[in-house]
Amino acid sequence: MEIQIHEHLTKIFKLQKELLENNWDLENDTESKDAQFKKILNIEIQNLDFRIKTRILNELEKLGPLEKLISDEDITEILVNGPSCVLFEKNGCLQKSTDCFFDTSTYNQCIERISQMCNSYMNKEKPFIEAQIGTLRFTLIYSDLSRGQHLLSIRKQPKDIWTLQKLSSINWCTDPQLELIQKILKTQKNFLFAGGTSSGKTSALQALINELPENERLVIIEDTQELRLCNLVSLSLLTRADILNKNNDVTMTDLLKRALRLRPDRLVVGEIRGAEATNLLMALATGHDGSFGSMHAKSAAEALLRLEMLIQMGAPQWSLQSIRRLIGLTVEYIFIVEKKNGLRRLEGIYQISSVEETGITLMKLD
After folding, report:
1. What global pTM score does this model have?
2. At residue 62, does pLDDT exceed 90?
């Protein structure tokens, strides 16, 4: 079918070129070229198979081969490296699509449509776009930064609400781990989720958020809105990065400072990745028990090391021993999630047991 689509698109674009160059006589010169081309297009596709017709219209008016991938609920992420390289993740495995864009021109038109959907644009001065539209998170990178082709990533949030019971049913964790997680939540202990890219940290955070009581006020702080509120008394804050310097940036640190004045029962940070780690742990030292967040790390020891480094970014004057004592006072557990052979699971739950002269000691609980 892809060959047929390519042949029809080749003919349609040839007709469009001839129209623009005025190489034929038109019956009605008062119509715009766009209106004339639509008439020609309708004539060319009217007798085609419905699937081929839909795919051609998607290429010309929508998001081309991405439309089918976006509608597939089993696909969790779509990656495009250029018009001929469309990838997707399904059941935890990255695959190359058999369908692709007709050429660079239609791919660039698709990028332009997505930019308009995001109420933004890209150029040399503004080479990035990050936006959330419904359950889709778009990331676009301008061609100057990527060897001549725009790059596109679309991450799809699950439409179904994740719960601990659902995670347990797909063997994400064992029954003892599930009971321990519920106990940690109920007793309002502070903890961190750590794992590699696409290991399921956000889904796990969402499942835990959904376990919390309806009268508990969460303040969720994120760079991109991925976590859903669990009740009407909670709220969500988003950072703002302004590349063109027309407005002031709003950082995680800024939001954490303001969040403390919004009477939170718990603080939730979508991803800890910078100097805001200092402010978060200082906030936890003054209360807000039961707070949690996520960060990139492959093991509990690596998570602690990275946390130390992030705190040093925000407080370079602090000694390493002081930083470790602060971590020991405020963080009680580290959950490690991983992705192996396309499957996401909870690797282990680790408790910070003590802070020694040589470092922080950990104890695996499951």
Report:
1. 0.80
2. yes
